[in-house]
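Protocol step 4 of 5: obtain the predicted structure for the target chain.
Materials: sequence only (see below). No template structures provided, no constraints applied. The aim of this step is simply to have a reference model before the mutagenesis design in step 5. Sequence pasted as it appears in the construct record:
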Amino acid sequence: MSECILRLRIGAHDAHYAGELVDGAKCLQLFGDVATELLIRHDGDEGLFRAYDSVEFLAPVRAGDYLEIVGEITNVGKTSRKMRFEARKVIELSRGANDAPSAAIVLSPPVVVCRATGTCVVPLEFQRARNTEPPQ
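Step 4 output (structure tokens):
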């Protein structure tokens, strides 16, 4: 499996700033969760996140938003796994003055809120699946 998708609703407990704004680190946490699943499926081990090569915060995330987090393995080395991630807002609460507090909008197309690339490692002794070819 070269791609993993995670969907979830951002809760009020994730809001950190005024206007129910969520800290950008929340996307990085979710990218880490997706990376873990990718490594388990590829190598049979959770591995370790070594570094982000780039991170772009592109749009705000607020409590009540639904996010779709997509990750994929883009390159496989002996112990390293290069990955690409994207977080997309697929639903947001409608915050119009006359809207009901529970009103929501399905975003079509989704709004990309964050992108990143990074590298994870799985030591040879922990690689159970022994996949050596890059995913297609």
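Step 4 remarks: Strands lie at 3-9, 15-17, 21-22, 48-57, 66-76, 80-93, 104-121. DSSP finds one helix and seven strands in the chain.
Proceed to step 5.
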